[in-house]
Amino acid sequence: MNELIGRVFNFEKHTFPNESALYNRLASDGQSPKALMISCADSRIVPEHIMQAQPGDLFVCRNAGNIVPPHATQNGGVTSTVEYAVMVLGVRDIIVCGHSDCGAMKALSTEADLTAMPNVAAWLRHSHAAQQVCRESYPADLSDAEKLRNMALENVVVQLAHLRTHPSVASGIARGEIALHGWYVDIHAGLVMGLDGETGRFSPLREGQPLPVALPHGRRLAGESHYALAAE
């Protein structure tokens, strides 16, 4: 803890003075982050570090397993964060970011006994769809490492589906104002992969190549063609 406190002093003495113009602008003008990132609370995954983001660039929500509960009447931190990011901050891109060696996903992939941690067990119910996909749709003879990787990837897919149940997100998607991204960070390789919504597969993010996007910006009004026909 003393080491961390020492870094606070270093921030006050060196970091802040060197970036005082940026902090003063953010304090005066408020924030307008470029994206909302929902990532795992794992201490090894730091969204700002991965994206080399400056203060003000990212609106971040972290929790065990990078989970987004489906929209419900009960208030929750993730739900409130999503709603505020979209409706107040006007965020146009939302990233759900999973990672390798995730403890939450490991509990699901090994079907660990979570009786002693009832709150963790209740939280991970929001990933049971991913667990069932892995249990019933992948070969049974995979290694533990392969099972864990598949669980983390499928969990990102499930949480993106949950995001679309949130009214603010659904409305923004329909208007073409919000795009969804699914990422996976391989800690061991220092590799970031993105979900391609057309193929349903993850591929590495590469400089100079098209970015894999789970759901790109674009109007998605189911009744739009009907209205167009009616107007003719």
Globular, elongated, flat, extended or rod-shaped: what is the shape?
globular
Q: What would CATH call the architecture?
A: 3-Layer(aba) Sandwich
How are the strands ordered across the major sheet?
A: 2-1-3-4-5-6
Q: Give the count of structural domains.
A: 1
The averaged pLDDT comes out at 93
Any low-confidence stretches, pLDDT <50, length ≥5? none
Write down how many β-strands occur, each being a DSSP E stretch of 2 or more residues: 6
CA radius of gyration is: 20 Å
What is the succession of H and E elements?
Answer: HHEHEHEHHHHHEEEH
Helix content range: 40-55%
CATH class: Alpha Beta
Say what oligomer this is.
single chain
Q: What would CATH call the homologous superfamily? A: Carbonic anhydrase
CATH topology: Beta-carbonic Anhydrase, Chain A
> Structural class, judged by helices and strands?
alpha/beta
Helices, by number, come to: 10
Main sheet summary: 6 strands, mixed
State which percent range the strand residues make up: 15-25%
Q: What is the straight-line distance between the termini?
A: 70 Å
General description of the model:
The protein is of the alpha/beta class and 232 residues long. It has one domain (31-204): Beta-carbonic Anhydrase, Chain A (3-Layer(aba) Sandwich). 44% of the residues lie in helices and 16% in strands. The protein contains ten helices and six strands; from the N terminus they run H-H-E-H-E-H-E-H-H-H-H-H-E-E-E-H. Strands 2-1-3-4-5-6 form a six-stranded mixed beta sheet, covered by helices on one side. Helix 4 (77-87) runs parallel beside helix 9, helix 5 packs across helix 8 (144-163) and helix 7 (128-137) crosses helix 8 (144-163). The longest helix is centred in the middle third of the chain and has 20 residues, at 144-163. The termini are far apart. This is Carbonic anhydrase. It catalyses: hydrogencarbonate + H(+) = CO2 + H2O. Keywords: Lyase, Metal-binding, Zinc. One of its GO terms (molecular function) is zinc ion binding.
